[in-house]
Here is the input.
Amino acid sequence: MAADAAFPQPEALEALLSRCALHDQRAFAELYRYTSAKLFGVALRILRREDWAEEVLQESFVNIWNHAAAYAAAKSQPMTWMTSIVRNRSLDWLRRPRQEDTNVDYDLLVENVRDDSADPLEQLAQSAEASALARCMTLLDSQQRQSIALAFQHGLSHSELATHLRQPLGTIKTWIRRGLERLRSCLDGART
Amino acid sequence: MRYDQPQLRDKLAAEYVLGTMTGRVRARCQRLLRYNAALRRDVAAWEMRLAPLADLASAVNPPARVWRAITARIGNARKKTGYWSDVGVWRGLAAVSTAFVLVLATVLFSREPPAEEPVSTIAVLANDKSQPAMVVSLPAKTSAAQQHLKIKMLAQLELPAGKSFELWMLPGGAAPPVSLGVIKADLAQTIQVTDAASRLLPKISGMAISVEPEGGSKTGLPSGPVILSGPWIKIL
Here is the structure.
């Protein structure tokens, strides 16, 4: 099933999710057609291996189907809800005890992240939420910004960030903690 | 760490969503999430804050085998009977057994003042966590011409601004849900049932509540999230 180029409005995805809650398989197929490419991209970025990303995408959609009724309680945008499922599954996969020891494809990872994560802000402009986040990200130090972007988009752990950015673990943890605190006060301030 | 302190909880939520924790800490956080509603709210808030970052990932079409594997796993058995037909699904979602309905019906209605009418059919609607949240019942002595349903909420449901709750009959088979109309957020209320709906009532397999635009669904079918559902069970 190929992905649809036109990405639907949140309301349309929400309607599809509520039909999924009623076990309407046609709605589920439509939901997959609209969202699978984006979500596969999210999983691929974190997992960096196609076979793993396929596995996680499959798990995630089964999860979305089984828990579509729980979407109502989530009170978030449908795409945010589904992306969180995919990110959580990907991170769970990446942080399996066995996996953490092996540190696979690390060089590949470093190559991949170097080019596009140094300044992801330019791309962040499509929605009001995105531009608020982009504006708040500019208030962070560049190290804070880079470690948060690398962690969120590529699933790097504290220790992987330390290796990648050649900094002590404690420094990384501080960058992230301060960065998140600043982001929060900036974003929440923007909302009120 | 004491996660009932809002600041620590928020910090934990932020790091969880960012994903920087080791597997061990992550698993511990997930155990906390299961029973800590405040932490779940903080996590959802952080997911919302950082969501635009996920948009930066470029879309990549997954191979067709992924969809095939998904459909195989969600059970093709249902294809034969139609989309709205699976009462088992509703029952599974609600996870309310007949025995439980009977007990609850006894508790709810037998201790009422004698003026309270006995009921003939009842649905206990549960949320996605299988907690009963609403009881819809059909009084036994209602005249066929003027049927009404009694609705009791077991806990106040939060109605989002600009939205309405809509009550649906689930006919079973391949038939789509049929609206019984918009209901109020009141703890107890009675709604009148139209003649057409009255004729359908004895035959339905379940009921559900969805959250719709103010005034009810514009499409004639549930268009917002389904928050409650349960089987419709004859007890008299």
User: Anything to note?
Assistant: The longest helix of chain B spans residues 37-54. Residues 77-96, 110-115 of chain B have pLDDT under 50 and may be disordered.
